[in-house]
Write a structure and sequence with these properties.
Protein name: Large ribosomal subunit protein uL18
Order of helices and strands: HEEEHHEH
Family: Belongs to the universal ribosomal protein uL18 family.
Pfam family, one: Ribosomal_L18p
Oligomer: single chain
Shape: globular
Helix content: 40-55%
Number of helices: 4
Strand content: 15-25%
InterPro entries: Ribosomal_L18 (IPR057268), Ribosomal_uL18_bac-type (IPR004389), Ribosomal_uL18_bac/plant/anim (IPR005484)
GO molecular function: 5S rRNA binding; structural constituent of ribosome
Largest sheet: 4 strands, mixed
Distance between the termini: 33 Å
Radius of gyration: 14 Å
Amino acid sequence: MANDISIRRQKTKTRIRGRISGTPERPRLTIYKSLKRIYVQAVDDTQGVTIAASSSLEKGLRETLASGSNIAAAKAVGESIAARLKEKGITSVVFDRNGYVYHGRVKALADSARAAGLQF
């Protein structure tokens, strides 16, 4: 069963990536979540570089969070990436949920990034 879920996610991920891409003015904000952590990065696909990244594994966030894999951690990571992008002068991004269903940690991260000033 786990193999079927990963195959479904990979197909969804491929379909989404065929439609969206990041630019220097409007990078792609992509998420990866594991069972223990959540990661997010802003990618410029035209040059193939990561503009900014954040995760629940970072020292500042890890010390304040009880767990790196809950909704509170996702909210903190969303606020962190929004602050880093605003420092670089970026306020608008393209959201890439990376094949994950838009609920729970993915939704919490997106909502906190929007609340912190990112537009998508």
